[in-house]
Design brief:
By secondary structure, the protein is an alpha+beta fold. It has 10 helices and 19 strands. The structure holds adenosine-5'-triphosphate (ATP) and magnesium ion.
């Protein structure tokens, strides 16, 4: 049985296995799969996740999908929208199961299932939901994950025709942002690392792709009254950038993921036919400062309502993207940032699942 944390993000799915340092990150993008013409095989399996997914929880079964990078270039690819809910989304489940099957193979956690050439990996998972969907959806989310699913890799380099049964025995559902704080406050062996975080009243602003969570955590317990969330995230602003760049320069990014790839590399050049070049830096600055102002307003509002909050952490992928803009917008208000902030939740989920499993052994 493998213990794993999985953050089923609207932008990307992150997986960490107990005892494995490197996290696995797969973009939450799928496209309908088909027989593809391969001129040269990709140099890594993650560049060509081509799978058939079977799960009793999917509305359409045994369909073929391109997942992650392979779907990113595809015109029929789907990224999630504001109205999607990760607790019930088929797309998110497809990417999550693909990620878990892949992680099982590369960590050599798969065993022979006893049925032909089918391999099996068994998991206890830690995962989470946004503050506002937690109370209503956590049971439904758990029921969707727990059970037996199957992923078959087709043209994926080095994994051709591997069939993996993904058996999820148990899923421990936590809350986005709160799990991140648990990770920051504890060591890998779950002992307290930071007394201030452990004993204090801490505000969190976790900026995701579609939601921004504002849990308030007092002595490591989530505050039911003051924790909340907003249905905004980076996606709205990224979509606006895509639209404006298209209007101004006639260049269309096929997906948000493609745009983010470029922003992360600090590459703002827009190339046009005939060697023409422009920069989209201004457009990015405009929308990112807007996003930052909005976030800072929300933080101020929360902090005013609950002045006992000692410090505010700004985390999630959005914090990495907006850091300098938020610092500027915040002026004298001190906010805290941490590195690799999009991986805090998934590490927290793993620790919380470990905590629960350990606890159960003693009771
Ligand atoms: N360094 C960066 N520069 C620009 N954008 C980034 C950077 N890092 C992450 N992002 C973007 O920030 C957004 C939030 O990323 P994150 O990984 O936290 O989202 P998620 O967890 O998948 O979404 P959600 O929490 O809504 O389910 C994404 O749109 C992502 O592409
Ligand atoms: Mg997230």
């Amino acid at each position: 049985m493998k213990l794993a944390g999985i953050d089923i993000g609207n932008d990307s799915i992150k997986v960490v296995l107990d005892g494995v340092r490197e996290p696995l990150v797969i973009q939450n993008i799928v496209a309908p799969g088909y027989e593809r013409h391969i001129l040269q095989e990709e140099d890594s399996p993650l560049k060509a996740l081509d799978v058939v997914v079977h799960s009793p929880r999917l509305s359409k079964n045994s369909q073929r999908y391109f997942v992650g990078l392979l779907a990113m270039e595809n015109e029929d690819s789907m990224e999630l929208e504001e109205t999607d809910n990760k607790a019930v989304s088929d797309q998110s489940l497809i990417v999550a199961l693909t990620a878990l099957a892949y992680a099982g193979i590369v960590s050599q956690s798969v065993t022979n299932s006893g049925y032909g050439n089918i391999e099996e990996v068994e998991y206890t998972l830690g995962t989470g939901l946004p503050v506002r969907s937690y109370s209503y959806y956590n049971k439904m989310f758990e029921d969707r994950l727990v059970g037996e699913h199957e992923v078959t890799f087709l043209t994926t380099p080095t994994l051709r025709n591997r069939k993996v049964k993904v058996s999820i025995r148990r899923a421990v559902i936590s809350i986005e942002g709160a799990a991140a704080l648990f990770h920051m406050a504890t060591h890998d062996n779950l002992q307290v690392r930071d007394e201030e975080l452990h004993q204090g009243c801490i505000g969190i602003c976790e900026i995701g792709a579609l939601t921004t969570d504002f849990p308030v955590i007092n002595k490591m317990s989530i505050d039911n009254q003051f924790s909340t969330g907003e249905q905004i995230g980076m996606a709205t602003y990224l979509d606006s950038i895509i639209r404006d760049v298209e209007d101004q320069y006639g260049y269309r990014f096929p997906s948000r993921a493609k745009l983010v790839q470029r922003i992360k590399k600090n590459d703002f050049t827009i190339r046009r036919i005939g060697e023409g070049q422009s920069s989209m830096k201004q457009v990015v600055d405009l929308y990112f400062s807007r996003a930052a102002n909005k976030i800072v307003d929300l933080i101020k509002k929360r902090w005013k309502k609950h002045p006992d909050i000692q410090c505010f952490y700004v985390i999630g992928g959005g914090a990495a993207a907006l850091r300098s803009y938020i610092i500027e917008a915040a002026g004298p208000i001190k906010l805290r940032f941490v590195d690799e902030s999009e991986l805090l939740n998934v590490n927290g989920y793993l620790k919380l699942a470990k905590n629960k499993v350990n606890h159960n052994q003693y009771t």
